[in-house]
Design a protein that fits this description.
mainly beta; about 25% strand
């Protein structure tokens, strides 16, 4: 109001904005098309369709151009020659504007009118309905009575019986079914338990946004759900929205993952035909907690010549297993001790058999049929050397030495 009085005091024209006058020149901004000039003579009546434009020969005005003069938009309706001349004929008051009187030197602007059409989507509203025994027949109290039915309809069938939307638009209604569940648009409220559910409503999000922390989003929180066919979770536009299960999940059929990223879990339990499942996991050192025989812990940092992990045995302890080769192409292993044909290598690094068949290697030497017994080579039993035997010296009386060649002579 103060601004109005100020403008009136300075003899400025002030127009109020209302349904009859949208004040195109003052409030709205037209898309400018590169020409600004004036009219060279006044337009004395709203019905006259010819106007005179200053410097028209330099403006390249064509048929179909839109021109804005004050609060009015006109359109050139006749052919304009290569060198335009005054006057030109126009359609007055187009695009919802009003044909008005214009004074000499009123500003003329060519504007770019975009071919946009706005339509209001359809809306259907109903209230106060009672949905009793819906989904079974043409009416609530004819074939729809419960004693005529052989099954219970699903929640989806009940919603489809209440309202069906086609070709877009909005259906809004309020009502209540025979179970005391109140419906209001896309909101479902149980008047018995107070449980509220929102369905068939898209949630607008920004890429990377976690809607779970938004207080304005009312996520469906039903107590239980039963789906007749399938559940599909898109994961958002970038497939990164996480679905979370905080309770046990049971799959009655094969579980398939097509992701190249695989499946990540803390542990894997396999039961097979056994009564008790076996645990497979990864560890950083020898486990200390007991397990079930057959449980396996893979070493997180295996090395060449090392081992694969630990297995829990019937001896109620964890033992290493899985030698890792020194070569990528050959089986080359490193062992601390090896026992062959025996239950234990004992104190020997290599032991074959036991008793008279014993072959042992310890920190001193090699024993055949016996232990090394402080010798580099200790043999208990007969020995045969096909080649030459070189010795620094021999000890003993030599009574047991037999020259087979001399005996033959």
């Amino acid at each position: 109001i103060n601004e109005s009085l100020k403008n009136a005091k300075h003899k400025k024209t002030f127009k109020l904005e209302d349904i009859e006058n949208e004040n195109l020149n003052g409030r709205m901004i037209s898309p400018y098309a590169g020409i600004t000039t004036t009219i060279s003579s006044a337009i004395s009546t709203p019905t006259i369709d010819s106007i005179n434009i200053t410097n028209i020969e330099n403006l390249d005005i064509n048929i179909g151009d839109y021109l804005q003069i004050d609060e009015e938009i006109v359109r050139v309706k006749t052919f304009v020659p290569n060198v335009p001349v005054n006057p030109i004929n126009v359609f007055r008051g187009v695009l919802g504007t009003r044909a008005e009187i214009h004074q000499t030197n009123s500003v003329v602007r060519r504007i770019n009118v975009l071919p946009i059409e706005f339509r209001r989507h359809s809306i259907m509203r109903a209230s106060g309905h009672t949905f009793e025994y819906v989904g079974f027949g043409p009416g609530n109290y004819s074939t729809a009575f419960p004693d005529k039915q052989d099954r219970a309809i699903s929640s989806t069938e009940e919603l489809l019986a209440q309202s069906t939307r086609k070709e877009g638009g909005i259906n809004f209604y309020t009502g209540m079914n025979d179970k005391g569940i109140s419906y209001s648009g896309n909101k479902k409220l149980s008047t018995v338990t107070g449980q509220e559910e929102i369905f068939d409503t898209p949630i607008q999000t920004i890429t990377g946004e976690d809607i779970g922390v938004l207080q304005s989003v009312n996520v469906i929180s039903p107590i239980e759900g039963n789906f007749g066919r399938c559940i599909r979770v898109e994961g958002g536009s970038d497939f990164k929205a996480i679905s979370q299960f905080n309770g046990p999940v049971i799959f009655g059929n094969k579980l398939t993952s097509t992701s190249i990223k695989g499946i990540e879990a803390y542990s894997l339990f396999l039961q097979g035909e056994s009564a008790i499942s076996r645990k497979y996991t990864v560890g950083i050192s020898t486990p200390v907690l007991a397990g079930n025989p057959g449980d396996i812990v893979y070493y997180e940092n295996p090395t060449r010549g090392g081992y694969l992990g630990w297995v829990y045995t019937t001896d109620n302890d964890w033992y290493r297993f899985g030698a890792v080769s020194l070569s990528k192409d050959l089986n080359i292993g490193i062992f601390d001790k090896v026992g062959i044909a025996t239950t234990s290598p004992g104190n020997f690094n290599l032991r074959v058999g036991s008793g008279i068949s014993m072959f042992s290697v310890d920190s001193v030497g090699v024993g055949i049929g016996t232990s090394a017994n402080l010798y580099k080579l200790n043999i208990n039993g007969n020995g045969n050397i096909s080649g030459t035997l070189y010795a620094g010296y021999l000890s003993g009386d030599g009574s047991g030495i037999v020259n087979l060649n001399a005996a033959a002579l």
